[in-house]
Every structure is written in structure tokens, then in C-alpha cells.
Amino acid sequence: MNEEKTTSPERESAASNSASQFVAFDELMRDYEQNHVAHAYIPVNPQDEYVPVYAVEKNGEKLLNPLPGSSAPDTQFEHTDDATAAQEKAETADTEPERTNEASKIQAAEPDIDKTTAAQTEAETADAEPESTDETTEQAEIGKSDIKPKHTDEAPVARTETETADLEPKRKKATAAKSKKRSKSERKPLNLKGFVTVAVFTTIIAAVLAANIISPDRTHSDTENRTLASMPTVTFSGVFSGSFMQRFEGHVSDQFIFRDEIVSLRSAVNRILGSKEQNGIYIGKSGQLFEKQEEYNVKKLNSIAKSINTFCRNNPKLKATVFVAPTASYILRDKLPDFVEPHNQKKVISRFYGRLDSNVETLNVINAFEKRKNEQKLYYLTDHHWTTRAAKVAFNLLAKKLGINTDSIKYEYHTVSTTFSGTLSKASGIYESADTIEICMPSDSKGTYVVKNADLQTKETSLFELSKLETGNPYELFCGGNFSRLTISTTNRNEKVLLVFKDSYANCLIPMLTPYYQEIVVIDPRYFTDNIEDILSSHPFTDVLFIYNIDTLAKDTSLSDVIE
Amino acid sequence: MVFSSVTFLFIFLPVTAALYFLPSVFLCHETGIKWKNLVLLAASLFFYAWGEPLYVFLMLISITFNYFIGLDLKKHSDNQPHKRFLLVFALVFNLGSLAFFKYSGFIAENLSAVFPAASAFDAPALPIGISFYTFQTLSYVIDVYNGKCSTQTKFTDFALYVSMFPQLIAGPIVQYNTVEAQLTSRRETLEGAADGIRFFVIGLAKKVILANTAGAIYNEVLAGAGEKPDALSAWLAIILYTFQIYYDFSGYSDMAIGLGRIFGFNFPENFRYPYVANSVTDFWRRWHISLSSWFRDYLYIPLGGNRRSIPRNIFNLLFVWFMTGLWHGASWNFVLWGMYYGVLLLLERYVFAKLIERVPQFIRQAVVFLFVVIGWVFFSNASTAQAFQMLAAMFGANGAYNPTAMYYLTGNLAVICTMAVFVTPLFRIKSMPQKKLHRFVLLAVTVVLFFASTVCLISDTYNPFLYFRF
Description:
The complex is a heterodimer of chains A (about 575) and B (about 475). Residues about 1-190 of chain A have low confidence and may be disordered. Chain A is α/β, with parallel strands linked by helices and about 575 residues long. In chain A, a hairpin with a 2-residue loop joins strand 3 and strand 4. Helix content of chain A is about 45%, strand content about 15%. Chain A has helices at about 1-15, 20-35, 55-65, 75, 80-90, 95-115, 120-145, 145-160, 165-180, 195-215, 235-240, 245-255, 260-270, 300-315, 330, 345-355, 365-370, 390-400, 425-430, 510-515, 530-540, 550-555, 560-564, and strands at about 220, 225, 275-280, 280-285, 290, 320-325, 360-365, 410-420, 435-440, 450-455, 460, 485-490, 495-500, 520-525, 545-550. Chain B is globular and about 65 Å long.
């Protein structure tokens, strides 16, 4: 501490004079360390010579007075002949050779100009070298020992050399001298170092900019199934609220050339790197994609069970059946990525059924699915729905619960698409597998029913809308998609009228039900805003069926709202 | 606007550079500096206004105020009492506006415990970069006051110093005395531009490829681990956060330095492989260097540094680290984080100094890294309670292992290893290689990194519209 107190005025003045961040930085090191580290300042890693370039310049400035325009970067990586010796010295001295080089070079060059004329000889070049090495070792010492006193000692010496001449011409002379030293034959001091890098990047960026301007804007992306952002108009309020900027940036990235290709390249690389998910989609084994699972909300499921119980008690004449289907992430859990734990849907569904009144029929297909999962494709690879085959397996079991006799009816399958990429592909951007869509319908069912769509106010004679195959979401071919209410009137006169509450899993199963009912009313509670009492009183319902998959059911809020 | 955006890379930057280098194309180097500074100033204001269309006026007010303070300091250079008054005035104004825009919500929140009325206070939104440019203007005023640099009499040049877009938003904090000369005389060279491009692309890759990925996995690991994370998940998460914050921050600094170099400026280096530090002191010499230098030059040393008594030094250190913590954000967890380092530095200096010297280098580095990682627990958790829960989880409070953690570890192993390698100086480019082939490889790597960064930027905006629940 004593020693420090005596030196402190000197150091303070040095600190205030010093314009160098680097110098000040050394002081921090000393401040922090001087109480317990033997050498106050030694670079932390002796081999770590990567030190900011500005320090050179500032050091140089301090020693030499500023050389206008003596910017360091253009020489940072320079290893010219005249510096080599100095550099070696510097490296052995364990300091920052590049910086010291630079400083020493400038210093070394200037006496040269003063002494000699334009005609330079080998000898003179050699002359310069000892000088520069001297400088370097001095600088190296500065780095090692206390830096400030050195500076103040040295500065006058350096200044006497530089103050004699005007600075600007000096700089020019110095560069001229240097370039002559570098190569006697080459007269032009044009420095093309870095030209290739600059040229390459200028070309790339200019080309992309031009291509983005030239390429016409797309309005819609099929892969992303959404309208792409268009160029926003400039409005005063838009600019000041910042919304214009946000929309502009959205526009630029949406309309970027090769956007789709870029996105699929990214997902390919991610997978090469070992990632087993993409945008919240698990990439399972043998091409199977899975929706990422959340914990099931047991409370919510319990309250849904309560709602169903209330509904059934209020409508005791209706024979109620509840069917909750498992999803791929449980049935095909072997294909989940390693270490992904499937949620136990079997337990969740059984518990849910346990909450229902005893007169409500329930159907559990998990065992049946487990038996068949190796023979049949029960779930699409690329979509979160089950296949028509799975729906048929479920239907055969469901028929018994509904009390309908399916013996006399034959079913036929038709393949309608072999290039189906479903929601999971779209969400993840992975299009490697394609699925086959089959439809399953009772033979001779054509012309036996009419479907009234309450949303579209249309009447159709089919539950399959093949035109949907051409759209972004081909699964909508079943029942034409999801609508708040479909009323299917058939040619049957058996007085059986079925009310169905469902999600999209039911869409491929509903056509299988048409031969057994006089009328089927299909309600999707997520879109249903009418009063359910009106529907109940206007149709002579005999049966009610709830079809959901466990994932939708567990997150659904609309069913309880509709039926309570 | 941020550097890591398509708009910046492919519109703002090329347009700015084209306008900036017009004089060079027409070979009027000597007269070009005025034009260049004006282009850079206009571009900087546009850049800031793009993200802060209203607060750009706040920045302009701050610039104008400090410009006139500088002029007045020069005018009254012999009048010490007046100078002192101006300094205090400037400190009150600059720190006051920083306090109002950054800390008023925090202050009100804490006051509301005593005065319930304070909870009604509606805190203003935080202006981007205010912490950075306020520190820059302060460094200017204090340096002029101390005679460390001269007054900038040209308004546009001073405005350029404060608002220069490369370092405006996330540093490095450039002290005025380090760029004073460069504002009026600097030389843009091909080689400097090539260096700058390399720096920028490496920074971009750090930010876009590594930091963003680490951040995404970090969030997923935390979400997957749920309320009570197991030890593996907790460690994995905090290590990912450790990588994310380094690559994010140092990437942004690299981009700033690179851009500066393209335009002929030399900004101070801001990160020097902090995660291989062999002492906590060393860590702070390598982490956010421009900030720790600022606090040292304008707070620690004026307070007396370590030149007074030992108790005073202890107070100084703790106070500086309290402020450093607070600078990072208006929340107690940042203060806690700062104090954590204050205490570590004190222990290192006054208690374990002798012991540390005897410990082998490698072990020192490992221990320091461990302390740094634990520090990020305080930094990353918004509340102190959460931070301690996380710490408890890291040390096994909720069990050691969970398959979900294994899933994230195995799925991202390659990425995590890459991140681990590049926090060390193993693949550092010390200087431009001599061999043509090596130079070509370096260029190729730079181009590939740029391409990969663009791919990441674009694909991050992949936003499919889904009928998922249907």
C-alpha cells in the first residue's frame, strides 16, 4: 500500500493523460491483482496476443502524436518483410506482436524518410530493422512492466521526431516508403488485400437484394397454408406506432427468394444434427410424425364427464354412448423418439369413463388397436388423425354399443389419394413420407341420404367432398371439413335418430353410420353457437353419441358449454 | 432494427454502404468525410427510429443536451466552479432520464410496499439502447470535464458518436476518447472492410445459429422439465443459457465491431473468450470489457479504487458491483447477480488469493466456469425465489434424472458440443493466413456461415397456419 501511495499522483496524471482504453484497462488488472499476484500485469494467457487494434493506434498516438488516418485494420494482418524480424522479437517477448509491429513500423519508417531520398537501397532497408526491433522490445517491456512511467519517459523522444514535419505529408511519405520497401519494382501503392472477400460479399448481398426486388410477390404459400405478408402501405400512424416496420419486416422475410427451399434445408440440417423434433412435432421412427404431448388436464376431463352426466340425466330418453379414441402417440409409442415418455392414455381414458354414470355406454378400443397396430396402418404418418381403417375397427366395436346390426351391410374401401401430406408435415416442414387416404362407405349407399350443412346452407348427396383433395388440407374431404351442424337425412324409416357430438376424428366414421338411422345430426361444439335445446326439441332423437380423441377432449372447452 | 434481421442484412446495410462509399467510388477521398459522416448519421437515426419511432426524439434531446454541455465546458474552461456545476447538471440529467425510463417502474414497485399509491405508477416502456448511449454521453461529458478529450464542436459529428448504429443498441460502449480522432479522420480500406465482414459474419453466426438455437432448446428443456426440474434438466438448461447469453451478446458485439470496421472505425473489443477465464477477476476482464472498463474508469477509480483503506476498497467493489448488476436490468435478481460477483471478487482478492495461485490452471478454469454458470441462475430467473428453486433443482432437490432431459440432451448433443468448442479459443483466427489455400478456406467458411445464418433467419419465420385442433 505504501508503495502505491507514493506513486499514485504520477499514476493519476498518467491516467488522465492517457487516451488509451488499453492502458486504462491495464490499470484495472493491476488494481484488481496487485495485492496478491506477483506480476501485476501479464496477459492472462501468454499466448493470447489477440488484443484490440485500437490500443495500437492509441499507443501510437500517445507516442507519436496522432497520424491522421492511421487506421489500424488495414495493417492488422500485415506481415511485411520489414516487420518480420521485429515480429519474431515481439513474439518471443510474449506481447502482442501485431500491434507492436504496427507501431514500430510507423516509427521505423519515419526516420527513414527524413534521412533518405526516394532512391532506396537494400542497405537502408536493413538499416531500418534494428531500429524497429528496438522499438518493439521497448514496447514489449512496456507491456510487461509498469506502463505509464514508460510512456511519459518515452513520449518526448518520439515527439521530437514527429513534430518537425507536417503530419499529413508525412503520412503519405511513410506509406510511399513502405510500399517501396515491400517491392522495388511495384510502384503503385494500391492495396488490394481483402478485395476478394469484399467483392464476394458485395456480390452476394447485391444479388439477393436484386433478386428479391425482381421476383414477383407471392400472395399465398401452399407449404405454410397461409396468406403471405404483402408490402404494407406507409401511414403516419403505422410508422409512429411501429406497426409499419413490423409488417415491412414480415413482408421481407415472407417474400424472400427460395423461402420454401430454405425452410426445408434448415429442417434437413437440424435432423442431420440429431434433432428429433421440428416446430413442436416429434420426428418418430420409420417416418412417423407425432404431435408433441402436453400433460392431460385431469380436472378439465372430470368436469367434461360431469357435463356429459348432466346432459344424459336431463335427457333420459336418449341412449348415450361415449367413445374416446386414443391417438398415435400412445398406440404407436414404440415409434416415438428415444427418451420421449408417452402419456398413459389407457389410464386417462379409463379414469374418464369411470367418472361417467353407469347407464352411459363407453367404448375402449385400445386393446383392439394394440392387436392390429402391426398389421394395419391405424394412424397417418404425416397427419394427427387416425386412418379410415382405424375408424372402421372402432366402428365395428361401436356398433355393438349402439345396438345396431351391421351383418347385412357390406363396406367398400376406395383409395382417393396416395400423396397426402397432413398437418404434421405442414407444421414441421417435413414432407418425406406421403400417406394414402382411403374412404370407407357402405356399399350401395349412394343416393340414400342427403346432407344439410347449417353453416354453408347447402344440400349434398355425399359425405365425401373429393374436391378437398386439391386443397391445403385434404382430410377435409371427410364431411367437407368441420361444421357446426350437419343434418343427414336418410331413406331409412326405422325411427332411429342419432345425435352426435364430435371432433374431427369422427369425420371419417360418420359415413359408416348412415345405413342404420333415419336421421343423424352431427354437432361440432367448437363451432356450435345455437341453442342445443332447440335442436333437441326439433328432432325425435333416440340415441346420443360422443366421439372425441383424447387430445382434443382434454383441451376442449366447448363441449361443456354446449351441452350444459 | 436489429442486425440479425433480413431487412438489415439485405436492404438497410447494402443501401447504407452504397451511399457511404459513393465518394470513394468517385475518388474524392479528401472531401468525402463530411458526406460519409452525414450518411452514417442519417442511417443511424433511421436505424434507431425503425425500432423506436418515438424514442428517437428522446435520443436527439439527449444528444443536443450533451452537445451544449460540451460547448459550455469548453467556453468556461477556466471557471472550475461553473464546470463543476455543468458536470453535476449533466450527470443529473443523463442519469435522471436513465432512471426515469429504465428504473421508475422498479422504484415504484419497491416503493409500493411502503406507499401503496406508488403501485398506480404507469412505468414508461424502456427505450432500446438507452443504457448504452447514456453511458457514452456520460463518458464524453466526464472526459471533457477532466480534459481527457476536447469538446466536439460539430453537432453532426457528436450526434454520430452517440447514435452510430453499429454500437447503438447493444454496445460495445465506446468511450468518446477512443473514437474522437476517427470521427474526423479515418481511412476505410479494402482490408479493413474484409476484416469487418469476417467479424460481422462470425458475430451473425454466433447470434443466429448458436445463440438462437441455444435459447430455443433452453426454453424447451425448461418447459419439458415442468414445475420441478430434475438435476439433469436444470443443469442442461442453465448450461444452454450460459451459451446463449455469451453467443448472443458477444455475437452482437462482433457484428458491431465488424460494421464499425467496414466504415473505418475501430471499436474496443468487448469479449475475449470469457468462459476460459482462470479467475473471477479474469472473467470480468474478458466479459463485456467495455462495460467493466466504463465502471472502472467512471465509478471505481473516482471512488478511490483500492488506493484508500481496505474497508473503503471493499465498499467500492461492492458498490460498483451493485451498480453493474443494476445496469443489466431493473430487477432485484440482476442486483443479486452483481453482488454475487462483488463478493466473489472480494473473496478472491482478500481470502483465497494465496490458495488460488497454487491451484493448477485447468482446475481454476473449471471452478471459475462453475461459478459463472451459477451466476447465470440469478441472471436468468426473474425472481429470487425462482433462482433459488433452480439452484436447489441443480443440486438434486427434485431427483437426478428424467427421460425428458435425456431426450433433449441426446437430440441436441452435436449442437451443444459445437457451442462448447467455440467458447474456447481453439479455433481462433489469430491473423490472416499466409497461404493462399488457407485464405480461400477462410473466405469459404465465412461465406458458408453467412449463408447458414440467412437460412436460420428465414426459417425462424416459418409460421405455418394449421388447423391443428380440428
